[in-house]
Amino acid sequence: MSYTYKGMVYSIKSPVTSISVNKHNVVVTDQDGSKLIKFTNVNDSKCFLAWVYKA
């Protein structure tokens, strides 16, 4: 699965083993390791989390 935010493409592979959230920052750990995604507002991070949970 890939997610595009502000021109950057983030590739996330199932299974996701952990998700950490701190205001605008989300760290997703999957098969390939940890990925830090920095969002500019809380709504963008919430939309991303909703997308991850659906997938």
In what range is the share of β-strand residues?
A: over 45%
Determine the N-to-C terminus distance. Answer: 8 Å
Residue stretches low in confidence (pLDDT < 50, at least 5 long) are none
Which geometry do the CA atoms define? Answer: globular
Helical stretch count?
1
Classify the secondary structure makeup into a structural class. alpha+beta
Write out the strand line-up for the largest beta sheet, numbering strands in chain order: 3-4-5
Helix content range: 10-25%
SSE layout:
Layout: E1 2-5, E2 8-11, E3 18-22, E4 25-30, E5 33-38, H1 42-54
Antiparallel strand pairs: 1-2, 3-4, 4-5
Explained architecture:
With 55 residues, this protein is α+β, with helices and mostly antiparallel strands. Helices cover 24% and strands 45% of the residues. It has one helix and five strands, in the order E-E-E-E-E-H. It has one helix spanning 42-54; strands at residues 2-5, 8-11, 18-22, 25-30, 33-38. The strands form two sheets. A three-stranded antiparallel sheet has the order 3-4-5, with no helix packed on it. The protein has a two-stranded antiparallel sheet with strand order 1-2. Strand 3 (18-22) and strand 4 form a beta hairpin. The model has no long low-confidence stretch (mean pLDDT 92).
